[in-house]
Amino acid sequence: MLIGYARTSTLEQKAGLEAQRESLRAIGCERLWEEQTSSVGPREALRAAMEFCREGDTLIVTKLDRLARSVRHLGEIVEALDGKRVGLRILDLGLDTSNATGKLMLNVLGAVAQFEREMMLERQREGIAKAKAEGKYRGRKPTARAMAEEVKRLLAEGVSKREVARQLGVSERSIYRVC
Fold first, then answer.
1. What is the structure's pLDDT at 97?
2. Is pTM, for the whole model, over 0.70?
């Protein structure tokens, strides 16, 4: 059975999720799991798709970065799938782990993808440092501090910190920082 997995990082990427869905259906995926979550957050749909896989099935993703966050994570996924005798295909790379060459290529490309991500993050950090040095970077606007008076009023009324955070749409930790 062909099993598809699609992921985007944010809710704004609906077109990207739809494109993945169409690609996976076009090649004949009978079951499809999808989610909109950061690669570093919990990935319940991926876990469910991997649990659903049975011997002889193939898990299919459109791109390598939709599946794994690092070479190590990729290795863990491949190992888990191999243990169940489940193949892995990555469409944009034309990669299939059902043979030794596919497994080798997957490891090489995974390392390159991780290198590329680390280089992008390094450039981002350099850009932020430069912007800070030039006085152009201010960071995210502090939302809870802007509501300090409201926070203090609700707390004075006896509302719990957890409830204040829920009502104002900020984290409980932010409430503690305000008081």
1. 85
2. no
With a pLDDT cut of 90, the percent of the chain lying above it is 30
Look up 160 and say whether it is catalytic. Answer: no
Work out the number of other CB atoms within 10 angstroms of the CB of residue 108: 11
Are 13 and 94 found together in one domain? yes
Asked if 78 contacts 68 with a C-beta cutoff of 8 angstroms, the reply is no
User: What is the edge-to-edge ordering of all strands in the sheet holding 2-8?
Assistant: 31-36, 2-8, 58-61, 87-90, 95-96
The arithmetic mean of pLDDT across residues 133-154, rounded, is 82
Catalytic residue among 9, 38, 98, 174: 9
Same domain, 84 and 157: no
Q: Residue 74's domain spans which residues? A: 2-116
